[in-house]
Amino acid sequence: MLVSPSGPANVGAVCRAMANMGLSKLYVVAPRCDVRDPQAVAYAAGAASVLDKLILTDDLPAALDGCVRTFCTSSKLGLYRRQSAIPPAEAARLAIDAAAAGLVAIAFGREDYGFKNEEILHFDRVLRIPADDGYPVLNLAAAVMVVCHELRKAWLEATQQPALDMTLNRDIAPHERKEVLFTKLFDALDRLGFFFGPNPDHLKYALRHLIGRMDLSRNELDILLGLAKQIRWYVDHHPPRDRRAPG
Which one, 28, 61, 109, 164, has least CB within 10 Å? Predict the structure, then answer.
């Protein structure tokens, strides 16, 4: 998935990288260029089928609907994102495992500044390519190739060494249900006073990616939704003077 790419050549080169590694489904969210510009066609080369069938959408959350696991790539990591970020090989293994249960999204941000902070909150995990600290920003197509190559290796390993599939009977909650959970959970915790300090989004990142590491089933997600509902009920029915300050 590409979010707001600005260069048609990059879009074409991404299509070629995907085709090289056996991948074919590309989503492009709110592009800032003509994704079927002649330059895109030229850079796609023999991967015209990927370019022709790419799916355009204007809305990131809508593009993630139906996914059982979501990843975004970022080289700009704050404290909580740095602690929870994973390398491409680990992300690839998790993606291949989850793919048995449904769609998996791996998203790449804008060429010039990547993802906005609020966009990262939509994803289960943050993926970071361990480039040199002196110049860690990769070209978009190069970053896609690194990740696609790891996906290819993980898929080959998984298919050549079949193991007992533990996901067949596991009804993993889709992305849109997780978005409902986080909206209600963050609201409940905010009412409780959990998010405090000058930058409360750090705690939201930490919670989002903590829960994102779990392949929640629909039933497990409903339990957490019930927890959020109960927190809201308690806060609404107990005036602040009856609640103890955090200790």
Answer: 164
Q: Where along the chain do its domains lie?
A: 2-160, 175-242
Beta strands in the chain (DSSP E): 2-3, 27-29, 55-57, 67-73, 103-107, 125-127
| Burial tier of 191 (Cβ tally within 10 Å: 0-12, 13-18, 19+) | middle
3-state SS assignment for residue 66: coil
CATH no., domain 2-160: 3.40.1280.10
CA 88 to chain centre: 13
14 CA to centre of own chain:
18
One-letter amino acid of 60: L
The helix, strand and coil proportions of the chain, stated in percent and rounded to the nearest 5, come to 50, 10, 40
Cβ contact 12:51 at 8 Å: yes
Q: What whole-number distance in Å separates Cα of residue 189 and Cα of residue 234?
A: 11
pLDDT per residue as tens digits for the range 127-146: 999 988 888 889 999 999 99
Is residue 109 within 8 A of residue 70, CB to CB? The reply is: no
Q: For 86-136, how does the pLDDT look when each residue is reduced to its tens digit (9 = 90+)?
A: 999 999 999 999 998 899 999 999 999 899 988 998 999 999 999 888 888
